[in-house]
Please model this.
Amino acid sequence: MNGTLKGAEALTDFNEFMWYGNVTIGTPPVTYTMDFDTGSSNVFLPGPTCGGFCAGHKAFNPNASSTAEKLGHSVYNLTYGSGWAFGEFYTDAISVAGYTAKNQSILVAQEYGKGFSINTTASDGLIGLGYPKLAVNGSNPMFVNMIEQHAVPEPVFSFKLADNGSELLLGGKNPKLYKGPITYTPVVNQSYWVIDVQSVSANETQVLGNLSAIVDSGTSLITGDSKSIATLYETLNGTVFPGQQGFYTLPCDSLPSITFKIAHKSFAYSPDDYNLGPLNDTSNECLSAISANDGVQGRWILGDIFMRNYYTIFDMGRNRVGFADLA
Model:
């Protein structure tokens, strides 16, 4: 456990595109690395028979744990923006930074999709921190189990995602990691962590209004529905990037600041925050990390690029998300 605060798990930054931490599973406990994803609600790990894209990840063997139990005989496919995992559900104990969820449903994968190969996903598996409605097999997400089993002091967890000092805190918020007031906004749909965004502005001129957005630690970038994104880049003289669907480029010498208004507070992003760099050494076109994605019912996704600038608090007890300046 990192530091003195119970529930605090230090997170490792993988290429500034994902952050992962350690958990222990089973009896005797075995340590695994897991991606903590607020955009889903299941837990998965490679099983002992998982080959192919599971190579390089540590496998969970239910037969080696005295507390593991099989949940029926059905097979399930969990699909994500970046990949998929296929297998059977078991239950076992999962511990994170001193807190344990007993009888936690875990998909033990027989196969991983390419997106979860060791080259693109550093963690062994994933823990979903969304609401129960998103769980594929109708079982409780890990943090909901911790709440119901009275394992955590508060139904709150918080993230700092940064180049260093990154942390997930279960059971509250870490006052050492943020400063000033917390801006809270209600969760408007308890499946994903969905909030209202009042407007998106470029160089302080409003371009879009009244959006719905998912705050998602499991998505690297910021994405929006293709119509809104097209409107944004039309205003900014952006160009469709042919190399990858949904992406746009902007002139490197005139990148705007982008501001999201949430709960009447402005959250500003400088070009350094969303500029993925020039297309090549001689190009004046820079690739933007704000891209189009219609895969989540027209909602925007405020991923890691958004969360990196703020301490982010997920309050399941009061169904709200909070943002505060990093200390």
Q: What stands out?
A: Helices lie at 142-148, 226-235, 271-274, 304-307. The chain has a mean pLDDT of 95. The chain has two domains: 8-170, 175-326.
